[in-house]
Each structure stands twice: as structure tokens, then as C-alpha cells.
Amino acid sequence: MERFVGKTIVVTGAGSGFGEAIAKRFAREGASVIVADIDAARADRVAAEIAAADGKSHSVRTDVSDSGAVRAMIELAVSTFGGLDVLINNAGFTHRSGPAWELDEADYDRVFATNTKGVWLGVKYAVPVMRANGGVIVNTASIGAVAPRPGVTVYNATKGAVVTLTRGLAVELARFNIRVNAVNPVAADTPFMRGALGGDSLPEANRAALISGIPLRRLTEPSDVAAAVTFLASDDAAFLTGVCLPVDGGRSIS
């Protein structure tokens, strides 16, 4: 299946976890992919693995909270591959799990700058490129945006903002034939989740506790999120905009 032949896709936070799976899925489906990540080495690795599988990609170090870096990322897509068809605002940061009132102010600022401002900056620089021919924006939110749990309240608040941005932008950009959707994943065993818990691996007790609240009794796999994102970005979802799709094994309704 090659739904994205001739399309240029930008994926932020593409150096690991969900973003890596998303970038590789788009490449397998024929897209030219800009692999953007704040960790240049990770971005380079993913781009090299795409190239080794005969895909088309280009890596770039991008801090999505930095306006100049995001503008340069979009300009790179246009100069390297001739345009921009899909933007995946996936990059995210999470603070350590703990009481909201004990969160360091610097971590509060960083989580909002990355997770919320980063989405807005992507839109700010992508929309002028997309306006002539239309396009798609897919944001990575979280099931915590609509069904929050204790310990990561501020992180959940940033993702609630992403859901509101997604719905508002869907209406605002429809006249340009730009669709805007989001995915709401549940927890996954990724570097992102392990960072929230402060370790190099996901403790079995935490894994069991997370799974106990998921009716399908497993965590999200990055491939689950990649499948949902590529569907929302594809012509199969041509009449879907403003959708915030749970990728959560039923957690939001349990």
C-alpha cells in the first residue's frame, strides 16, 4: 500500500517512539519524509534506516519551541522535496510524575513550550505553504487530555490545549482545504513514558497498573499510533477533520 507517493511529510519528534514509527510508516507508503527531532543523532539514525529500506528522507535537528528552528524545518521540506503536504506535530516533553504543586517552574514552562507552543509554531509556518493546494495536519495529543489521571496533571493540561487547538484549527483552516486531526494515545513503553517515571525501563508494577485500566489489556504500541496517524493523513479520511481519535484500547470509556 502506497498512499503517499509524491507526498512530502514532516514529522516532529521522529527520533524515537511514536514519531519514529510514524516517519517509517509514511516512508514505507511512498512519502518523502523530513525526520525532525531535538536529538540530531536520533534523527540521523531514523533517516538512515529509512534510506537503507529504499525510502526517501532527510533529517534535521529541530527544537519545536523555537520559532526559527520550526521555520527552518518547513523551509527545508520545501527546498528538499518541493513542497509540504502533511505536518505531524508529534514532538513532546513530559515532566516527572508527581504532585502538580511540586512541579518545578522550569519544567512547567518547558512542557507547555514543547507540547502546545510547538504545535502552534508548526501550524504558523506550515499553513502559508499549504494554503495554495491544501494539506493535512495531525497532532499527537493524549488520552490524558480527555480522561486525566493524577501525577501528570500539567502534561495532561498541555494535551487538552492540543485537543482544543485541533478542533478550532479544523474549522478555521477548512476554507483552505486543510484538514486538522489528532490522535489520543494511551501509555506506551517508550523513552517518553520511561522519562515520566524517571527510569531507563518501565517497572513491572507500573506496567501492570497501566494495563489494568485498559480494556484490551495491553499498552499502546508505536505501530498502533503510526497506523492511526497515517489513516487520518490519507485520502481514506478525506471527510474527517476536527477528529481527536483515541488510540487507547478502550481506556477512555472504562
Give your account of this protein's structure.
With 254 residues, this protein is α/β, with parallel strands linked by helices. It has one domain: Rossmann fold (3-Layer(aba) Sandwich). 45% of the residues lie in helices and 15% in strands. It contains eight helices and seven strands. A seven-stranded parallel beta sheet has the order 3-2-1-4-5-6-7, sandwiched between helices. α3 (67-81) packs parallel to α4 and α4 runs parallel beside α5 (153-173). The model has no long low-confidence stretch (mean pLDDT 93).
Secondary-structure map:
Layout: E1 8-11, H1 17-28, E2 32-37, H2 40-52, E3 56-61, H3 67-81, E4 86-89, H4 105-130, E5 135-140, H5 153-173, E6 178-185, H6 191-197, H7 204-212, H8 222-233, E7 244-247
Helix pairs in contact: 1-8, 3-4, 4-5
What are its keywords?
254 residues, seven-stranded parallel beta sheet
Short description:
With 254 residues, this protein is an alpha/beta fold. The chain has eight helices and seven strands. Helix 1 links the parallel strand 1 (8-11) and strand 2.
- Reported CATH architecture: 3-Layer(aba) Sandwich
The figure for the number of domains is 1
Strand order of the largest sheet: 3-2-1-4-5-6-7
* Backbone shape: globular
The description of the largest β-sheet is:
7 strands, parallel
Report the end-to-end length measured between terminal Cα atoms.
34 Å
| Uncertain stretches of 5 or more adjacent residues | none
CATH topology: Rossmann fold
What gyration radius follows from the Cα positions, in whole Å? 17 Å
Order of helices and strands: EHEHEHEHEHEHHHE
What portion of the residues fall into strands of 2 or more residues? 5-15%
Structural class: alpha/beta
Report the CATH superfamily.
NAD(P)-binding Rossmann-like Domain
Count of helical segments?
8
Mean pLDDT: 93
Residue share in helix: 40-55%
Number of strands: 7
